[in-house]
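Because showing beats explaining, we let one protein speak, sequence and backbone structure tokens together, and leave readers to judge.
___
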Amino acid sequence: MHTPSGTSLTLMPAPPAAHPAATLPAHGGATLPAPPEFLPGLESAAPADAEAGWLHDALLGPHSADIVGYLRLARLSGGPVLDLGSGAGRLAVPFARQGFSVEAVDRDAASLERLRAWGRRTGPQVSRLLATTRADLTELRLRRTYRLALLAGTMIAAVPPAARPALLREIAAHLEPGGVLALDFTAHRLRGLAEEPVRTRAFQVPRFDGVEEWAVARQVFDLDDMSERIAYHCVRTGKLSAERVVRTTRKWIVDPERLGEELRAAGLRVERRRRHALDERTESVLLVCRAGG
């Protein structure tokens, strides 16, 4: 994903000309070498494709650097913890291993089953701290209160802007007094997007099943509706055959000022803001918001 608060994936030069992935589509008609930066992720409010598991885990996998920072927040705020857009549990399971009660919310039933299976493999002391709820973030209805809510891995960018105010109000209404919402997103300089609305990266997906998988991520920004569309053109090469697949996701460009207004309207006060420049046109932003202020 873009933000260093998530998993980084080593980006590779373009595959050799003889490799099937060398013919994957890219901006300008050729596969471009990948710059040393973070890849756009598969954050989405829509259900995940089970066949995209390797790619999804590579981009949003369980070794994300943000676990440490979010665990620190949990130790300061206490539980229970609400993990929104939890996926297969890259945050929820480590939190439960540290003794926090976690409710993991995701729209994708297969991801939640993977989360529960991971918890069971880890042990009953972890599994009993994990609760899962299948729900669309755009229609979220919570039933309990929390000390910490997370919209991690730039999940806020997967929520349509029209649905975002209601989501933030729902979260705020279910935070205990003094409770915390933490979220991160990628902030783009709009001039940079206008100058370069299409960006392409080539990389190899790490797999351990005897299949070699390459991908070209083609990222297209549309400033008219403030959206971002990403198509992952993948080639999987096994011993006997090669398979070509395309995975797509749509996200929204987050306007920091508008998001700030929505947080205030929901009764959430931005207590801490951390910025990290990714390049001259993009930065990662982490917001820690307090309820009741």
